[in-house]
Fold:
Amino acid sequence: MNVGVLASGTGSNLESILEAGIPVVVVIADRPCRALEVAEQAGVASELVQRMSFGKDFDRDAYTHQVIEALKRHDVELVVMAGFGTIIPAVAGAYPGRVLNTHPALLPAFPGWHSVKEALDRGVKLTGVTVHIATEEVDAGPILAQEAVAVLPGDTEDTLHERIKEVERRLYPDTIRQVIEGTLP
Ligand code: GRF
Structure:
């Protein structure tokens, strides 16, 4: 099953996915980022489908269309979001049940961009990781896997997020593999 990874950040989840031998055929980024370098070093095709604007004039439909075109051009069958910084719900419409996401909290708690900070601010003692099928509604699709991460005294957003990402780097590739093998969902 051809996998396309969407990423915007440091690409540590992408690295774990590649190390796990998941058959990634293309990495698509919405901005210049380390994830593109990770792809290049691994000899995987990469495409920068750059956002033209981060303001109110951002044409989400046109942008989403470009991303879907790039995915189709590489014959992607399973889309894996690994820290993609643009909300593009229509991709789930083009790939129904075939878009996966990892979220750094125990959904349905703390959806959205600031889940690590919000968990910390709320004073929860446990947060964690959710791997789910992405639907047109953000952070709301069927849950495939979850694992808890304890919030420790003295945690900052960075230290907590890093411990969450350590779990993501194991749980996400494991879950992707199960989807490819057909044992999930
Ligand atoms: C992950 O925590 C992911 O859940 C969130 O963004 C982070 C990406 O990290 N959406 P990286 O770029 O893979 O290191």
Notes: The longest strand covers residues 126-133. Residues 22 and 177 are 7 Å apart (CA to CA). The chain has one domain: 3-181.
